[in-house]
Write a structure and sequence with these properties.
Blueprint: H1 8-15, H2 25-59, H3 64-98, H4 100-109, H5 111-115, H6 117-133, H7 141-167, H8 174-178, H9 197-221, H10 230-261, H11 268-287, H12 295-323, H13 339-366, H14 378-412
Helix pairs in contact: 2-3, 2-7, 2-9, 2-12, 3-4, 3-6, 3-10, 4-7, 6-7, 9-10, 9-12, 10-11, 11-12, 13-14
Amino acid sequence: MSGTSFTTEELLRSLRYAGGIDFYPQVFQVLLVIFWGIHMFFINLTIGNIISSLVNLWRGRRLPLAKKMVVSQLRTGIITLSLGIVFGVAPLLFTQTIYDELWYTANNLSAWIIVLFVPAIIFAYYAGYLFYLRKKQEPTVLNYFLYIVAIALIIYGAVAMHTFTYEGLFPDKWVDWYTDGGTTMRSDGWHIYAFNIPRFLTFIFLSFFITGLQHMTASWFFKNRTDLEQEVLAYRFRFGKRMALSFGILTLLSWLIYVTLDGWLMHPVIYVLTLFLVLIWLMTVRFARSPQSLWTPVLFALGFVFVEILSVEREAIRVLTLARFNHTIANYPVYFNVLGPILFFGTMVTLGTFLFYVLYGVYKAGRQTGVFDPETNPSSNTVSRGAARLTLILFALWQIAFWSIGLYAVMRS
């Protein structure tokens, strides 16, 4: 390594937080993979809906069915962007915890690129929401301008996150990047030192694959609604199927190009999981017949599995890369503290029951015409009341645990 007597292994070890962590790093790693997949799933729906709605807006000048999809796509894109941001906090915190040497180095190397991510996403959200508020108006220059701003800023956010993650995979080049090959100190934070186009495009193409499956599932979900136009639902199914099939191929091709060029294709983990991705796409081709088929929502669920598998492969590549430098999270110093994990997992369980209660009501309400009243349906009423009671009980226990742990920590300090 230029300009230093440190080996890459020593550099990584010296950058690791000396105070260690308070729980098993492997648990944080599993949670990182799961929550990154959930986060990416919602971001995929955001990118896919907002960009493809521009296509329907344009086609809507001559095709009324396409125009009628725009509002629904925008509404979905805005909601999923909010959910993507919420679920994106957890994987970033887990990354910061067990990969702090990668996290902080990448944040310093491309500081301004990363810092501008937050305002970019904020402005992207409001640009999309402003257009949504103008949904009843005919397309205007301002409408298209808001669209372009929202899309550009969301893509910028994707570029920033890709840069941050990918630069962390090259610890042997960090010093050369920062010192410009040992000649000077490059501390302005405006440089992108590593960018992999096939890897980046994989997750962009994936957005349209997942969004296509979502459109197909929406057609299935609303097929019994008498207050909705069946012609629009049929168009939505056809539009989603074409999107899913074509961008599914592009997703697989870009991923195969990436893992082949970087030398990971024949590694057993990457090879087996990639074959499973191919299987899911083939099932989409084989079983995506009509909105009436129960395979339609199943394929959407498999789309989520598809994203989670890519999350596993993404983490596997990071683990294999660090192994080249004899670096692993397994030897991260652990100073066990059970209180933090109790609060975290308790929060997850409490939130999970609350989300089930809300999503169950949304599901039942969306499947029928008119107002959904659980009390008119004995089974729905039983499930709703049971979920509500369990949520209240768990929330009360969570409050007790939260204040007790906080009081204990204050008294100890």
